[in-house]
TrEMBL record:
This is AAA+ ATPase domain-containing protein. It catalyses: ATP + H2O = ADP + phosphate + H(+). It comes from Linum trigynum. Keywords: ATP-binding, Hydrolase, Magnesium, Nucleotide-binding. It comes from the Eukaryota. Residues 308-335 are annotated as: Disordered. GO terms for molecular function: ATP binding; ATP hydrolysis activity. Gene3D superfamilies: 6.10.280.40, P-loop containing nucleotide triphosphate hydrolases. InterPro entries: AAA+_ATPase (IPR003593), AAA_N_dom (IPR025753), At3g28540-like_C (IPR058017), ATPase_AAA_core (IPR003959), ATPase_AAA_CS (IPR003960), Mitochondrial_chaperone_BCS1 (IPR050747), P-loop_NTPase (IPR027417). One of its GO terms (biological process) is response to stress. Residues 244-392 form the AAA+ ATPase domain. It holds the Pfam family AAA_assoc. Its cofactor is Mg(2+).
Amino acid sequence: MPSVSMGGLQLPTMSSLLSLYASLSAVIMIVRTILNDMIPESIRDFISRKASDFFSSYFSRDFTFLIEDHWEAVENETFRAVQAYLPTKVGPDTSCLLLGHNDNNNLLAVAQPGVSVYTRIVDHFQGMKLEWTLNEKEEKYNSTYYIPKNQWFQLRCKRSDKERVMDSYIPHICRTAEKIFYDREILSIYTYNQEESNWESTVFKHPATFETLAMEPEQKQGIIDDLDLFVRRKEYFRTVGRAWKRGYLLWGPPGTGKSTLVAAIANHLRFHVYDLQLQGVRSDFELRRVLTSTTNRSILLIEDVDCSSNSTEPRSSDEITNDDENGPDVKKRSASDKGVTLSGLLNFIDGLWSSCGDERIIIFTTNHKEKLDPALLRPGRMDVHVYMGHCTAAGFKLLAGKYLGIEDHELFKRIEDLMRKFPATPAEVAQQLMISGKPEVALDGLVEFLKGKEVDRIEKIGGEEESKSKNLWCLMRKWKNKKKKKKTPLVAEE
């Protein structure tokens, strides 16, 4: 190797140093290529993590907490708390900020801050400096397996602060997040995406409240009192050993306001709504996974439960067993059955899986209560049964005040008399009152609509009588033809 003499010391030249660097680089790249080809990626990642942990343990003064988005079979509530807490700590040290909103009805809605992936957020608490980063691993598809996307928060602090973080800082985050959840201004409605196996949300801005519901005042107040009592009784449910949940059954003819009542309950409690179509769930196993991924302080809505045949079909005698103190339950069906079974549904709303979550309202709606299996109807599963019937006089007056801005009119008495003879749903009454902003025109239209119900009833009765007459005539004709055939000789005379 060429060298330069300096005071008796031989130093290599610049060209020789560059040549040596090039040779070492080539060797390192060859070794790296060989290792990449020979050692699987999972093993390389494992070695890299272990090496990183080793050097961090012995040479670093920092400590790292990892908070993943899932904890075993359910969503990690600590992850949700951090996700709500960190946007309140965005400061001058934050280099990137995620903004957006999901209010598709209002383009000018105020954008909400969020935590962007790989963005560093610094928080200070009781003299500690805490650095947060949100990390993400993309989903992977393979011919034999599928790895879903997952996220995790990385919290870095001084090693000497580890105990204080566990004892003081994390509880502080959870308390702050709980207040954020309780004081939420924006509600969301979720629908389950079967293809992606997750819940998708949009802003829930239904204007219904208990003040605008066309219901009897006593029935309405009874529901409000029951809801208020439920949210205050966390310790009571824990003391008596029951899951903190409440089941409602809303039943009655179509158009009587069942969905509107659900919206009023959500607005009253400030609960998110998870709208689940049982027909879109492939199995009992998927149902458990779907329902355990819902959050606390939420409403699980299952509409038209009678239309899901597997989950409500009548049971045979050999499917019923007296295996609990509350009455008959259902044996588990064959695993080959498709869709959600009644057993799978009952196990979540009143079995061991019902304890996976707190402060939840489960609401079923149906047009035909008589089609439901009695096992669904007992207390503990559907605690409160609310009949949503036709519009009453009190309901009509409330609708008239809301749509027409009047409290009384000379046509009110006539309309109430007609409604007693020819029942109409609140949806039908509201539709007629929306025809005109002039009370006289709208009320006249409602009178004519109710009279039309009488005409429709008469025509229906007439049609049924005519149909019966035609059927009777057909039966008589068949009987006469049959009688003639009996008189016909078996062998013709010559």
